[in-house]
User: Fold these one by one.
Assistant:
Number 1:
Amino acid sequence: MEPKFIPYSKKLLRGEELQNESIKHYHFMNNRRTVREFSTEPISIEVIDNIIMSASTAPSGANKQPWTFCVVTNAELKSQIRVAAEKEEYDSYNGRMPQEWLDDLSYLGTDWHKPFLEDAPTLIIVFKKSYDLENEIKKTNYYVTESVGLACGFLLQAIHQCGLVALTHTPSPMNFLCKLLNRPVNEKPFLLIPIGYPAENVTVPDIKRKGNDKVIVLYK
């Protein structure tokens, strides 16, 4: 296939304007928090579509875009997902997770109960595709985990940009989602993300993020 290129342009910022924009965006993103208590107020499917399509602009290996975003608003299906997830979470909190892991989670106040899976108006389940199927022929995808991880990062940013909140939930194992959502064999669950407005008077853990001296190594 011959490569084909098209012109690209965007507004460029420099100097003080660039500095101010970087500060503004950092403070905006630093205000993002994981929320575990959701309002039941619905979110329009048009908003969800736009958020997901923003996530789908993420870079991917060979532009394969190896992801599927399943959107669940049906109350009965959300209930089934909660039951299955809580079964896996109960087993994790009662034998699967080593004590060190449980200790690390203790200050967050989490346990195997996951009411947010029913309370949140929308669940987005992200699936990764190790390969595509075209007329029953396997087509390899590349850097699948990295690509889907980037798309999930874009998704969380888009959710925050819209003034909504989310939770990255990973009940393990997550194979029950393949069955409940009737996904094809080339798709594997990656993240389960409740999305919506925060519940009234919601609280979040009093955490501190690492400073730049802990996360940046500068080579001059």
Number 2:
Amino acid sequence: METLSVEIRNSKVKRILKELEALNLIKIKPKLTLNTLLIKLRKNADTAPSLDEITAEVEQVRKMRYEKGS
């Protein structure tokens, strides 16, 4: 599967694309906006790690890395 971004310059093309989508030859996805992305990311906010949890994980990995180097 290949994803392309297409700029439509003629309204007839949009109709043709809709017909191709109806034939299941292509799938048209709405353009991802910053607002849409924020909404999508906030859905997982309950399961996202806190800043303290991220910091603790980073410090643990750094400690293990430095111990291997010694």
